[in-house]
Design goal:
The chain is mainly beta and 119 residues long. 8% of the residues lie in helices and 50% in strands.
Length: 119
């Protein structure tokens, strides 16, 4: 049994896997207001960036890829006074043909969905 396992491991080399990385120098804002969508034209990454000058203590951040919600987060300030809130989501991989959308919530002063090309 051990001999068979050793021979199995030696028979095929492991294929080299390329991990994609975002190219931060090649980016573009693809959605600049809520209730809009964008179809991905080349593989890459997207990030949701939101800004609120003065607002409620809690605000909802939401991003969808192919209809599935990937970001559903509540942003909040650390005090009861109204302060500026800035939110940046993690970076999500997308493929050509994916549909990225930012649902309407009516709270944010600045909405940006940033696309990063694959390096």
């Amino acid at each position: 049994m051990i001999t068979k396992l050793k021979n199995l491991c030696k028979s095929k080399p492991m294929p080299e896997y390329k991990i994609p990385y975002p190219d931060y120098a090649r980016n573009a804002i693809v959605i600049d207001e809520p209730a809009k969508s964008w179809e991905v034209t080349t593989n890459g990454f997207v990030q949701l960036q939101l800004y609120l000058e003065e607002g409620p203590a809690n605000a909802l951040a939401s991003l969808k890829i192919n209809g599935a919600t990937v970001v559903y987060d509540t942003c909040s300030t650390s005090s009861t006074s109204k302060r500026a809130v800035r939110y940046m989501s993690p970076i999500f991989p997308v493929k050509k043909g994916d549909i990225v959308s930012v649902p309407e919530d009516g709270v944010w002063d600045l909405v940006a969905c940033v696309y990063y090309a694959e390096r």
